[in-house]
C-alpha cells in the first residue's frame, strides 16, 4: 500500500490503486484552464508523462518556449493535417482539450486523430455552466460546436468525458458585466434583487477534481459521462457581504438594476455582446446554477474546494 497525494490539494491518504492513465496530451494549454492543468501535472508526485500540443500556425510560441525550458514535451501540430495530429498523439492515453470557444471546431479533427493514434479517453472542452442551447437559444451555436467532438467520438468509438463546473469566480468576477469588478473601490452593480445563487468553482479546484477522477475511477465509470461539480453556491448579495467582512472599511455603494435592462441588452445587441448579456441574464435568474440533487462532487469525497470568498 503506497501513499498518494490528492492532486492540487494539501491532503494525503493511502491508496493501492495504480493510475489507469499516465500519458496525457493537453490541447489549448496556453489558456487559463490549460495552464492550471500543466501546473498540476508539473507538481504532481505521480510521474505523469505530458505532451503540450501547440499549433504550428497561430500557436503561442512564447508559452511553448517557456515550457520547453522547464523540460516539457511540446509538439507542434497542424489541425488540418491528420497525420500531424496522429503522430503527436502516438502513445498518448488521454487527450485533455482546454481549447477556447474560437477554436472549438478544432476538436473534431483532434478526436478523429486521437482515435487513430490509439488514445483511450478524450476530455472535452466545456469548463462552464450546465446551460445548453435548449436552455438558452443564444447559446445554440456554441453548444453545437462544443458537442460536435462528442458526437464524433461516439461515431469513431472513442470514450469521452466532460466536466461542467459552473462559473470560474476568479475569472468572471473581474469582468465588468458581472458587476463585481470594482469591489476594491467598494462599489458593485447587481441585476435583480441579488438573492439568486449561482454555482462557482475555481479553476485549480476543477483541475484537482478532474485529475482525481481520471486517476481513481475505473474507465467504465468515466466513459461518455458528464460530471457536474460545484465548489461553492453564492448569490451576488452574499459575495458583496463576504467582501465587506473580509475587508472592513467604508460603506459599500451597491447599485441594483432591474432585470428588464439586461433583457433589453439581450434584445438589442448582436453577436458576442448579445451572447454575454444572455448568459449573464441566465446567471442572475438562476438558470446557470447546477441542480443541487445531481451534483457529482461525491466522486471525490476528499475534495475540499475553495469558496468564492477565498478568491476575493
From TrEMBL:
Keywords of the record: NADP, Oxidoreductase
Gene3D superfamilies documented for this protein: NAD(P)-binding Rossmann-like Domain, UDP-galactose 4-epimerase, domain 1
Keyword Oxidoreductase: yes
Domain NmrA-like: 22-246
GO molecular function annotations of the record: oxidoreductase activity
Domain of life according to the entry: Eukaryota
Recorded family membership: Belongs to the NmrA-type oxidoreductase family. Isoflavone reductase subfamily.
Protein name (Swiss-Prot/TrEMBL): NAD(P)-binding protein
Amino acid at each position: 500500500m503506497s501513499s498518494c497525494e490528492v492532486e492540487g490539494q494539501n491532503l494525503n491518504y493511502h491508496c493501492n490503486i495504480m493510475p489507469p492513465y499516465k500519458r496525457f496530451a493537453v490541447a489549448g494549454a496556453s489558456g487559463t484552464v490549460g495552464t492550471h492543468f500543466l501546473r498540476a501535472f508539473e507538481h504532481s508526485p505521480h510521474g505523469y508523462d505530458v505532451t503540450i500540443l501547440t499549433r504550428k500556425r497561430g500557436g503561442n510560441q512564447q508559452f511553448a518556449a517557456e515550457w520547453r525550458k522547464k523540460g516539457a514535451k511540446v509538439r507542434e501540430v497542424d489541425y488540418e493535417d491528420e497525420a500531424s495530429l496522429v503522430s503527436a498523439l502516438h502513445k498518448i492515453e488521454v487527450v485533455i482539450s482546454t481549447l477556447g470557444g474560437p477554436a472549438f471546431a478544432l476538436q473534431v479533427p483532434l478526436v478523429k486523430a486521437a482515435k487513430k493514434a490509439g488514445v483511450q479517453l478524450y476530455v472535452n472542452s466545456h469548463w462552464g455552466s450546465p446551460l445548453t442551447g435548449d436552455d438558452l437559444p443564444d447559446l445554440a451555436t456554441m453548444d453545437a460546436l462544443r458537442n460536435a467532438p462528442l458526437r464524433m467520438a461516439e461515431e469513431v468509438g472513442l470514450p469521452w468525458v466532460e466536466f461542467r463546473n459552473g462559473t470560474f469566480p476568479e475569472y468572471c468576477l473581474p469582468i465588468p458585466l458581472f458587476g463585481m469588478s470594482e469591489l476594491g473601490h467598494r462599489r458593485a452593480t447587481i441585476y435583480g434583487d441579488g438573492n439568486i445563487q449561482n454555482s462557482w468553482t475555481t479553476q485549480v479546484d476543477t483541475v484537482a477534481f478532474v485529475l482525481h477522477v481520471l486517476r481513481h475511477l475505473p474507465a467504465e465509470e468515466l466513459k461518455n459521462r458528464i460530471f457536474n461539480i460545484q465548489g461553492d453556491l453564492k448569490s451576488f448579495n452574499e459575495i458583496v457581504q463576504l467582501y465587506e467582512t473580509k475587508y472592513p472599511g467604508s460603506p459599500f455603494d451597491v447599485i441594483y438594476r432591474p432585470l428588464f435592462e439586461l433583457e433589453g441588452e439581450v434584445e438589442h445587441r448582436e453577436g458576442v455582446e448579445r451572447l454575454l448579456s444572455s448568459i449573464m441574464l441566465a446567471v442572475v435568474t438562476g438558470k446557470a446554477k447546477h441542480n443541487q440533487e445531481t451534483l457529482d462532487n461525491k466522486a471525490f469525497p476528499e475534495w475540499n474546494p475553495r469558496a468564492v470568498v477565498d478568491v476575493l
